[in-house]
Amino acid sequence: MHSLWLTGRLLSRAVWNGIANISSAADPNINRKSEPYLVSAVCGFSKERKIQRLIKGQFGDDAWFTTRYKSADVLGVADGVGGWRAYGIDPGEFSMHLMKTCERLIKLGRFTPSNPSELLARSYYELLHHKKSILGSSTACVVVLNRENSTLYTANIGDSGYMVVRGGRVIHRSEEQQHYFNTPFQLSLPPPGYQADVLSDQPDSAITENFPVEDGDVILVATDGVFDNLPQNLLINELTKVQGERCASRLQTVANSIAWMARNLSFDETFISPFAESAFANGINTIGGKPDDITVILATVAI
Question: 266: which of 71, 137, 212, 294 lies 20 to 30 Å off by Cα?
Answer without folding.
Answer: 137
